[in-house]
UniProtKB/TrEMBL annotation:
<protein>
    <submittedName>
        <fullName>Magnesium/cobalt transporter CorA</fullName>
    </submittedName>
</protein>
<dbReference type="InterPro" id="IPR045861">
    <property type="entry name" value="CorA_cytoplasmic_dom"/>
</dbReference>
<dbReference type="InterPro" id="IPR002523">
    <property type="entry name" value="MgTranspt_CorA/ZnTranspt_ZntB"/>
</dbReference>
<keyword id="KW-1133">Transmembrane helix</keyword>
<comment type="similarity">
    <text>Belongs to the CorA metal ion transporter (MIT) (TC 1.A.35) family.</text>
</comment>
<feature type="transmembrane region" description="Helical">
    <location>
        <begin position="314"/>
        <end position="333"/>
    </location>
</feature>
<feature type="region of interest" description="Disordered">
    <location>
        <begin position="1"/>
        <end position="24"/>
    </location>
</feature>
<dbReference type="Pfam" id="PF01544">
    <property type="entry name" value="CorA"/>
</dbReference>
<keyword id="KW-1003">Cell membrane</keyword>
<feature type="transmembrane region" description="Helical">
    <location>
        <begin position="345"/>
        <end position="365"/>
    </location>
</feature>
<keyword id="KW-0472">Membrane</keyword>
<dbReference type="InterPro" id="IPR045863">
    <property type="entry name" value="CorA_TM1_TM2"/>
</dbReference>
<keyword id="KW-0813">Transport</keyword>
<keyword id="KW-0812">Transmembrane</keyword>
């Protein structure tokens, strides 16, 4: 039985299908590729097959291959060259992974969520406050493969800064993983710093705006965005703890032998610095989450109090209207013997009595602050 491939063209149902389209070469997904020896980029090895073969023959250095949203077939050819585990390849292609760190036969597989703050003129017109993508890193003894999905995941600046510091690049794949993790966590710091004024403004609007002008949807919007940011930040604490050498901390689950590059004391120190920055970000995200939760409760309380006030006013006016309604109902029964029916002044006297009763009832309700 023939298998169905995702990339095969579908026929129109009236005739035989055309010939299958040729597979897209892996080079189409390559953003950048280079071999590094002694921390310096080697020229003339833009093809990852040649670059990896050169590193293997030299017995030192490593290859840094950058990919953007590769397909199954493209990633399969990369996996064949670098000997990647099928489970890691599957996660890399399909993306939508939570931040995590796993070990596959000594290869570190790290998933990061990148975040960027979206500028907006007014909070009540903003649909999103943060936007992000995914950066996946496969780091072995002599290679680093970075796979990007979505926008705001460009790593050209990270590569350029590392290439300007050969001493750092000479530390191997661990230095590249640290640089990318540091870049991502620094972007988190930028996002939470930019969100500070927004959260302050939302808090001010909730406590200063009149209840009828209160827009609780803005609070829900920021609550949703903070939760999305928290899903990117919180799970990263465990992987950074493991990369820092603190295997015993909660969330530092991977068990296995680290490659030489990740055993460097200097690399671990740098990862500890990134973990400290992440702790700062996580504290700010938790603070925003708690403040927005309190704002939701405060807004709901304000709305509830206003509804109770409105119901008291409605009930008060209904009670005042019940007095003339009752009298009108009695006199509208058309009985033959109704008191004062033949008296000339009965109608004006009745109106005066009704007005006095309603006025006294209004004064009583107003005194008790129901009106």
């Amino acid at each position: 039985m023939s298998s169905l491939h995702r990339g095969s063209p579908a026929g129109d149902g009236d005739g035989p299908a055309g010939p299958p389209l040729p597979p897209v070469p892996a080079a189409r997904a390559v953003v950048d590729c280079a071999a590094y020896l002694h921390g310096r980029r080697q020229r003339g090895f833009s093809d990852f097959h040649q670059a990896y073969e050169h590193v293997r023959e030299a017995g030192e250095g490593f290859v840094w291959l950058g990919l953007h949203a590769p397909t199954d077939a493209q990633m399969a050819s990369v996996a064949e060259v670098f000997g990647l585990h099928p489970l890691a390849v599957e996660d890399v292609v399909h993306a939508h992974q939570r931040p995590k760190l796993e070990l596959y036969d000594g290869t570190v597989f790290l998933v990061l969520r990148s975040m960027q703050y979206i500028e907006h003129d007014r909070q009540d017109r903003a649909n999103d406050v943060v936007d992000g993508g995914e950066i996946m890193i496969l780091a072995g003894r002599d290679f680093v493969i970075t796979v990007r999905h979505g926008d705001h995941t460009q790593l050209a600046g990270v590569r350029a800064r590392l290439e300007a510091r050969p001493d750092s690049m000479a530390l191997g794949p661990g230095a590249v993983v640290h640089a990318i993790a540091d870049f991502v966590v620094d972007s988190y710091l930028t996002v939470v710093t930019d969100m500070q004024s927004d959260v302050d403004e939302v808090e001010e609007r909730v406590f200063t705006a009149a209840t009828r002008d209160l827009d609780i949807d803005v609070v829900y919007l920021f609550k949703r965005e903070v939760l999305e940011l928290r899903r990117a930040v919180a799970p990263l604490a465990g992987p950074l703890a493991w990369l820092s050498g603190h295997d015993g901390q909660p969330g530092a689950n991977p068990r296995g032998e680290r490659s030489v590059s990740f055993q460097e004391k200097e690399i671990r120190r740098h990862f500890r610095d990134v973990a400290d920055h992440l702790s700062t970000v996580n504290d700010m995200v938790v603070e925003y989450d708690e403040r927005l939760t309190s704002l939701l409760h405060a807004a709901a309380t304000k709305v509830g109090i206003q509804q109770n006030t409105d119901m008291r006013k409605i009930s008060s006016w209904a009670a005042i209207a019940a007095v003339p309604t009752m009298v009108a109902g009695l006199y509208g029964m058309n009985f033959e013997f109704i008191p004062e029916l033949e008296w000339r002044w009965s109608y004006p006297v009745l109106l005066i009595l009704l007005a006095a009763a309603c006025l006294n009832l209004w004064r009583l309700l107003h005194k008790n602050r129901w009106l």
